[in-house]
Amino acid sequence: MRSSKTDQDAVGAEVHVPLGVHPDTDPVRVVRAWLAALAELGVTDGPLLRQINRWGRLQDGGLSGAAVNEAVQRLAAAAGLDGAADFTAHGLRAGAPTEAAKAGHPTSFIAEHGRWSKTSPQVLEYIRPVEKWRDNPIRGIGL
After folding, report:
1. Whole-angstrom distance between the N-terminal and C-terminal Cα of the chain?
2. Which residues pair with residue 4 across a beta bridge?
3. SS3 of 122, please?
4. Is residue 82 left, alpha or beta, with left meaning phi > 0 and alpha meaning psi from -120 to 50?
């Protein structure tokens, strides 16, 4: 990652992403295929997510947040998901820490991987709903 909201000086960081278990949703395979497609068009630097005009031609600029949201909602609708308009690009960011917490990974590791501070209130917001069920004090008292 070259820069982010928490990396204003653009120092960057390497984020390790494991291979996925399903070829169609494996993030590593998908990004590698997209990078190869961009390279075939002579694009080897700049934004990963690019604008494509109405004639299907790649543009120089990256996608805006609104454009990513629209794409997520369009794909959710195409997949037949209920409430597709409620799906957002932010859900892509928030879903990983939530699922990682469900799988039992420590908050500090989740925060580090998502490039949040270990005490970030934001990462805690994402995992708190999971902890409310997993760590519920009423669980296991024989009710």
Report:
1. 48
2. 7
3. helix
4. beta
Read off the DSSP letter of residue 4. B
CA–CA distance, 122 with 114 (Å, rounded to integer): 11
Domain count, the chain: 1
C-alpha 78/C-alpha 91 separation (Å) is 17
Domain region containing 1 = 1-63
Q: What is the pTM of this model?
A: 0.70
DSSP SS3 for 117: coil
The answer to whether position 29 is within a domain reads: yes
How many residues are recorded in the chain? 143
Domain-embedded: residue 98: no
Dump pLDDT digits (tens) for 6-55: 667 777 777 788 898 998 889 899 999 999 999 999 999 888 899 888 89
- Token pair, residue 25, equals 């949703």
DSSP string, 25-60: T-HHHHHHHHHHHHHHTT--SS-SSEEE-TTS-EEE
Residue 26 covered by a domain:
yes
- The answer to the question of residue 8 being in a domain is yes
